[in-house]
Write a sequence for this structure.
């Protein structure tokens, strides 16, 4: 069963979250938090060729030149397949030690540091926050989204400057994020859109319309974009080929993912005032969730695009679900809620990782070679 190592991590985080919620000693809570971060660092930092995108990054790393004279922004930028920030990081890692696994480890270290900087002042029970992170986007970010994960976590740390009304700091951080993934251009207008506290009824109206559109068979974007790009759709095909994989019906159906978003949206609506009372900047994460479900629901015609764009705002889940725990008055109810989330996260992780491409190995204990993994990956593709 390929999911077993991931189930172990989820259960460790779940038990740690319940323990953190139960103990009084600050020292014990601190030790629990440190344990959780070290666990994720070890598990993902020393992983082998897991999931899918290592095929791209491994080849790019081996092709990266360590000759400083040839590594010239002006002369070689047209040949880069990645953004400058990630390319420079790859160059630096290869200059230190010519081993792809160092790049993976450094990327995970950066993610862990950014995640800690974001969560440390937001969530007291960071073990629970890390559990939510793993379940909602974290697994994919740590294994597949080497570039985008850094950009998303930079954005998460930049959000505070919207509340503080510090546009220069915010835009500087987003510019750094753009250096790692071009999709971060999406974050520039966010500063102007997320500044406002939107009415709960507007939230509900947008959510209902989004759900209705998602479940319907209506196609709005494809005809519009076809007109813009040309009547025969050939240019449309070229522009969206990488993101239109998966059928139209694959995205728009009554799935577990949709039910998850539905429950999350309804809970946010029901506890709207309590969530806003929990933290001064709660509106930022509610707005993040609005952006998340709008991207998911209204981009359904481009299934992969909707997943990639909505992931940019996955931060909402980590904060809002953690704050929902505080909405329960009695301690036992909070513990039951954390227990329920742990069970759900376990089941969700099984669904995500119970495939051969997620078969876990660790470089410290002997990982399969690139060629071995490539053969396995190709066979898994042939079996689909």
């Amino acid at each position: 069963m390929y999911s077993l190592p991931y189930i172990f991590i989820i259960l460790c985080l779940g038990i740690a979250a319940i323990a953190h919620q139960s103990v009084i000693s600050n020292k014990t809570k601190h030790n629990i938090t440190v344990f959780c971060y070290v666990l994720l660092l070890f598990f993902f930092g020393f992983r082998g060729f897991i999931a899918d995108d290592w095929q791209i990054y491994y080849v790019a790393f081996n092709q990266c030149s360590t000759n400083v004279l040839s590594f010239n922004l002006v002369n070689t930028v047209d040949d880069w397949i990645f953004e400058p920030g990630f390319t420079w990081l790859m160059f630096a890692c290869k200059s230190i030690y010519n081993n792809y696994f160092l790049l993976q480890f450094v990327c995970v270290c950066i993610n862990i540091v950014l995640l800690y900087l974001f969560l440390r002042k937001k969530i007291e029970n960071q073990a629970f926050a890390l559990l939510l992170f793993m379940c909602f986007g974290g697994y994919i970010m740590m294994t597949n989204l080497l570039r985008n994960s850094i950009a998303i976590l930079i954005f998460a740390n930049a959000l505070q400057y919207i509340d503080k009304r510090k546009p220069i700091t915010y835009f500087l951080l987003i510019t750094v994020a753009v250096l790692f993934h071009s999709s971060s251009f999406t974050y520039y207008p966010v500063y102007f859109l997320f500044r406002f506290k939107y009415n709960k009824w507007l939230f509900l109206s947008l959510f209902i319309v989004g759900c209705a559109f998602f479940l319907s068979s209506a196609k709005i974007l494809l005809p519009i974009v076809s007109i813009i790009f040309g009547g025969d759709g050939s240019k449309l095909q070229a522009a969206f080929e990488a993101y239109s994989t998966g059928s139209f019906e694959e995205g728009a159906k009554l799935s577990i993912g949709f039910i998850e978003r539905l429950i999350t949206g309804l809970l946010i609506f029901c506890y709207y005032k309590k969530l806003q009372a929990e933290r001064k900047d709660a509106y930022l994460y509610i707005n993040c969730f609005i952006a998340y479900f709008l991207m998911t629901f209204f981009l359904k015609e481009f299934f992969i695009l909707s997943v990639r764009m909505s992931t940019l705002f996955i931060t909402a889940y980590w904060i809002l679900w953690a704050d929902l725990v505080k909405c329960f008055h009695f301690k036992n109810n909070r513990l039951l809620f954390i227990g329920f989330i742990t069970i759900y996260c376990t089941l969700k992780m099984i669904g995500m990782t119970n495939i051969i491409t997620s078969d876990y190995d660790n470089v410290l204990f002997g990982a399969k070679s690139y060629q071995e993994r490539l053969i396995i990956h190709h066979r898994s593709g042939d079996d689909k």
Remarks:
- Residues 245-252 have pLDDT under 50 and may be disordered.
- The first helix runs from residue 4 to 22.
- The CA atoms of residues 229 and 239 lie 9 Å apart.
